[in-house]
Design goal:
The structure holds two protein chains of two kinds. By secondary structure, chain A is α+β, with helices and mostly antiparallel strands. Chain A has two domains: 2-82 and 244-265, Immunoglobulin-like (Sandwich); 98-236, Roll (C8orf32 fold), CATH 3.10.620.30. Chain A is 16% helix and 41% strand. In chain B, 30% of the residues lie in helices and 22% in strands. Chain B contains 14 helices and 23 strands. Chain B is globular and about 65 Å long. The chains are: A alpha+beta, B alpha+beta.
Chain lengths: 268, 470
C-alpha cells in the first residue's frame, strides 16, 4: 500500500525563543514492511544537526534553531510503500538486547490490578499469549479520548477503564513484562480506516518480543497487529522515550502547539 | 577486631618502607607536632579544600582531618598493585564495550544477562555506540584494602567520576612544604604529574571529527556541588576551561562553548555530572545542569564525554562480583587483585548464610555509598543487627554482604600520641590511548580507635600516600 504523509507541527511562542534544540525520530524504520519512496523533514530556520541510527535501529536526527524566533514549523512530507507482515518486525537491524525492555519505567510500572490482568489470560505458546494480552488490554481499557493525559500511567488508565492509544500501549508493555515478555512503545502513523472507526493518525502501539519470532507489533486500540496501514517511526521504553519530536527552547516562553496531519492512500 | 596487619611494625621491627620514618617520629617532640598539625590545618583552610569525598553529604564546609603520618609502599609492593589496578581498569572497559555491543560475556553465560540489561545504570540510549578509542571509563577509582603483606582486596570500583584526587595532590603539596627533609631522605615518586597525564588522557580520546588540537573542558554542576573545589582545581592545573551547562550549547552537529571571542567548538567534556542530568532531551527533562542535545552530538561522534554515558553499569555492587570473571573472559588472565568474597542477598542460598552470620558480616546496600545504610556486624549491638535483619528480609535484592576484613593499620597521630589506625586506598587509573597510573592515591584513615569505617562523614581522615622509588 502506498501511504502519503503530510504532517505539520507548528510551535508558537508568546515571546521570542533562542537556542531551540530538537531531536527527531521522524524517519520511517528500515525493515521489510516499509520502503521509503520519498521523505523529507524540514524545520523552519533550522540547522540540521547530528544524524545516526541508534541501538534500537531508529534514525535520529537533531536540529537546532539559533533564534530568536516566535514560531517553529516542523514539516514531514513523504511517501512509503508498506506491506502487511502481520505485525512482525522483519529484517530490522538493531543492537539493543530485548532483555533491556524488561525494565519498568514510570508509566509502565505494574500495580496489583495490572499483574492480575496479566495473569487473567493463558495461552499455549508465547505468540498466542501476546495476542491474548493485547486483547485483554483492549477489553479492560476502552477507547475514549479526553479522559487521560500525556502523563497518565498504565495503572491509572486501567483504573479508569478508559484511555487512548498511548494508554493501551503502556498497559500492554506492563502486562507483557508481568509475564516475563519484553515490551516496548512504538510511535508512528496510521492511515485512517474507511469504516468510520477513526483514530488519531499520529498513532502509537506496542511491540512484544516473542522468542523465536522477534519483535511483533500489537495495537490494542484497534484490536489488530500493525499491517499495511501503519508506518513505524521508532520505539522506546514508553511514550516519552519513543517521542517522534523532543525539544527544548530557551527563553521561558509559553508554547502553543498546532498539529495537522494527513495519512492518505496514494497512487504511485 | 584483634589481629590486623600493621604496615609499619612487624613486632618490634620496622618494616623497610617505613625505615626513615621512625627517626623522623622520634625527632619530633609533642609540642612541635601540634604546631605542625595546626600549620597543616591552616594551609588546608587557606586553599579551601573542604569538600566531602565521594559525595558523602554532611557539612560541605567541614575540613577533612589531615593526618601527617604518611602511608608508604615499597616499589615492589606498588608494582604488583599497579599491574592489578591496570588489569582491572582494562577489563572494566572491555566489559562496557561488550555490554553495549554484542554482549558476548552474557551469551557465554559468564554473567547473568538480566543483571546487566535490567540494571538502572545500563543506558539503552548508548547501546551500539562505541566511544572514541573504545574507552567508557577514563578515570577508574579502585578502592582497595590490605589485610597482610601481600593481601590486597578490591572493595569497589568507581567507573563514573571518582572524586578525591585533589586530596592526593594537596596532601603531597602540604607534606612537602612542611617536611622538606622527608623528601630528601626518602626517594618518593612524584604525583604532581597527574593533572598533565589526565589532560593527555582526555585529549587522546577526542573524536575522529576533531580538527587540530582538541579542546577539553570540565563540566561542573556548579559551585553548590560539594566537589566544586576539585573541579576548579583540576581545570586550573590542566589549563582547561571549567564550564557549567549554561556555558555550552549545541549548534548543528557540534557542541560549542561561549567565550568572549565567540563560540568555540568543544571536543572532549570531562563531566562531573551524573548521566541523568547531562542532557534534558535524552534523560531527565527537568535537568537544569546539562546541555540540551548533547547526547545526540555524542552518539553521532561529534564530541567525547568522559566518563562515557552508561559507564555506571560496570561499578554496580552486584556487577562487582563478576569482575574477576571479566578479567578471565576479556584478558585471558588470572586476577592479580582479589575481590572481597561477596554474598548476594538476592540469591536464596546466600541470603540464608547472611541471615545466619549477620553479627560477623558487613552488609551494604547495592546502590548505597558513603558508608550510609550499611551494617558492620561486629561493631553493632543486638538491636541494630535485628533492625537490619528486618530490612534485608523486606528487600533482599537490595543488599550484599561481605566478611568483616581486618583492615591494615598505619601509625597515626592521635591525642595520646601515635597509634595504629585502619586505612584504605583509592588510586586513580587513567585510561585513554594508554592505561596509566600515577604512583600514589588517596589513603583514607579511620581516626576512631578500632573503627573500620574510613568515610569522612563517619570520622575518617586522609593521609599522604608514598610510593618509594626502586
Amino acid at each position: 500500500m502506498l501511504l502519503r504523509v503530510d504532517h505539520v507541527t507548528r510551535y508558537h511562542y508568546d515571546r521570542p525563543v533562542r537556542s531551540v534544540v530538537q531531536s527527531h525520530r521522524l524517519t520511517p524504520s528500515v525493515f521489510q514492511g516499509q520502503r521509503v519512496i520519498d521523505w523529507e523533514v524540514t524545520v523552519s530556520d533550522g540547522r540540521r544537526g547530528a544524524e545516526f541510527r541508534d541501538g534500537a535501529g531508529d534514525v535520529i536526527q537533531g536540529w537546532t534553531v539559533a533564534g530568536p524566533v516566535n514560531e517553529i514549523v516542523v514539516t514531514v512530507r513523504g511517501a512509503v510503500e508498506t506491506q502487511d507482515l502481520a505485525g512482525v518486525l522483519k529484517r530490522h537491524r538493531e543492537t539493543v538486547s530485548p532483555d533491556c525492555y524488561l525494565r519498568a519505567t514510570g508509566p509502565t510500572r505494574t500495580d496489583k490490578a495490572l499483574s492480575e490482568l496479566a495473569r487473567s489470560v493463558d495461552a499455549a505458546d508465547p505468540l498466542a499469549l501476546a495476542h491474548a494480552l493485547s486483547d485483554c488490554v483492549a477489553d479492560a481499557i476502552s477507547y475514549r479520548p479526553g479522559v487521560t493525559h500525556a502523563h497518565t500511567t498504565a495503572a491509572e488508565a486501567l483504573a479508569l477503564g478508559e484511555g487512548v492509544c498511548q494508554d493501551h500501549a503502556h498497559a500492554l508493555i506492563a502486562v507483557a513484562r508481568a509475564r516475563e515478555m519484553p515490551g516496548r512503545y512504538v510511535s508512528g502513523y496510521l492511515h485512517a480506516t474507511e469504516d468510520g472507526t477513526l483514530h488519531e493518525a499520529a498513532h502509537a502501539w506496542a511491540e512484544v518480543y516473542v522468542a523465536g519470532l522477534g519483535w511483533v507489533g500489537f495495537d490494542p486500540a484497534n484490536r489488530c497487529c500493525p499491517d499495511e496501514r501503519y508506518i513505524r517511526l521508532g520505539s522506546g521504553f514508553d511514550a516519552q522515550d519513543a517521542a517522534p519530536i523532543r525539544g527544548i527552547a530557551r527563553g521561558g516562553a509559553q508554547e502553543e502547539l498546532d498539529v495537522s496531519l494527513a495519512v492518505l492512500a496514494g497512487q504511485q | 577486631m584483634t589481629a590486623f596487619f600493621n604496615e609499619m611494625y612487624h613486632g618490634a621491627d620496622v618494616r623497610l618502607p617505613y625505615a626513615h620514618l621512625e627517626d623522623w617520629l622520634r625527632s619530633m617532640p609533642v609540642e612541635l607536632r601540634s604546631l605542625k598539625q595546626a600549620e597543616a590545618e591552616a594551609l588546608f583552610r587557606r586553599i579551601g579544600i573542604t569538600f566531602a569525598v565521594y559525595g558523602e553529604g554532611g557539612d560541605p564546609d567541614r575540613l577533612i582531618p589531615f593526618d601527617m603520618f604518611p602511608r608508604v609502599f615499597s616499589a615492589t609492593e606498588w608494582s604488583r598493585l599497579e599491574r592489578g589496578i591496570k588489569q582491572r581498569a582494562r577489563a572494566l572497559n572491555a566489559f562496557l564495550v561488550d555490554v553495549y555491543g554484542r554482549g558476548e560475556i552474557m551469551r557465554a553465560g559468564r554473567i547473568p544477562a538480566r543483571l546487566v540489561y535490567e540494571n538502572e545504570a545500563y543506558e539503552k540510549a548508548v547501546a551500539g555506540i562505541v566511544p572514541p578509542k573504545g574507552v567508557y571509563s577514563h578515570i577508574v577509582g579502585i578502592d582497595l584494602v590490605r589485610t597482610g603483606p601481600d593481601e590486597f582486596f578490591v572493595l569497589e570500583d568507581n567507573c563514573r567520576t571518582p572524586s578525591g584526587v585533589s586530596y592526593m595532590l594537596e596532601n603531597r603539596e602540604i607534606m612537602m612544604r612542611m617536611f622538606p627533609e622527608l623528601f630528601r631522605e626518602n626517594r618518593i615518586e612524584p604525583v604532581d604529574i597527574y593533572p598533565e597525564k589526565l589532560r593527555r588522557t582526555l585529549a587522546s580520546v577526542a573524536p575522529a571529527k576533531c580538527e587540530g588540537e582538541p579542546t577539553v573542558v570540565i563540566l561542573t554542576p556548579g559551585h553548590f556541588n560539594s566537589a566544586y573545589y576539585e573541579h576548579s582545581f583540576l581545570a586550573d592545573l590542566m589549563g582547561v576551561e571549567l564550564v557549567e551547562g549554561q556555558d555550552l550549547f549545541v549548534d548543528g552537529a557540534y557542541v560549542y562553548m561561549r567565550t568572549t571571542e565567540g563560540p568555540r567548538r568543544v571536543d572532549v567534556i570531562y563531566r562531573r555530572i551524573d548521566d541523568a542530568y547531562i542532557d534534558p532531551l535524552c534523560f531527565r527533562p527537568d535537568s537544569m545542569l546539562g546541555v540540551a542535545g548533547l547526547m545526540d552530538v555524542y552518539r553521532s561522534g561529534g564530541v567525547a564525554i568522559c566518563s562515557a554515558p552508561g559507564a555506571g553499569v560496570a561499578d554496580d555492587k552486584a556487577v562487582y562480583t563478576y569482575v574477576p570473571e571479566m578479567i578471565r573472559f576479556y584478558l585471558g588472565e588470572e586476577p592479580i587483585l582479589n575481590n572481597v568474597p561477596t554474598w548476594q542477598c538476592g540469591k536464596a542460598d546466600d541470603l540464608k548464610y547472611v541471615l545466619e552470620h549477620l553479627p560477623e558480616l558487613v552488609v551494604k546496600e547495592v546502590h548505597g555509598s558513603g558508608g550510609y545504610g550499611m551494617l558492620v556486624g561486629p561493631k553493632s549491638d543486638h538491636a541494630q543487627v535485628a533492625a537490619f535483619r528486618a530490612k534485608i528480609i523486606e528487600n533482599p535484592g537490595n543488599y550484599i554482604a561481605q566478611p568483616t576484613l581486618a583492615l591494615s593499620a598505619v601509625p597515626t597521630f592521635v591525642e595520646e600520641g601515635v597509634a595504629p589506625r585502619h586505612v584504605d586506598l583509592r588510586p586513580y587509573c587513567l585510561v585513554g590511548e594508554r592505561v596509566e597510573l600515577v604512583p600514589g592515591g588517596l589513603t583514607r584513615v579511620a581516626l576512631k580507635d578500632g573503627s573500620l569505617v574510613v568515610n569522612s562523614s563517619q570520622g575518617g581522615g586522609v593521609k599522604d600516600t608514598w610510593v618509594l622509588a626502586e
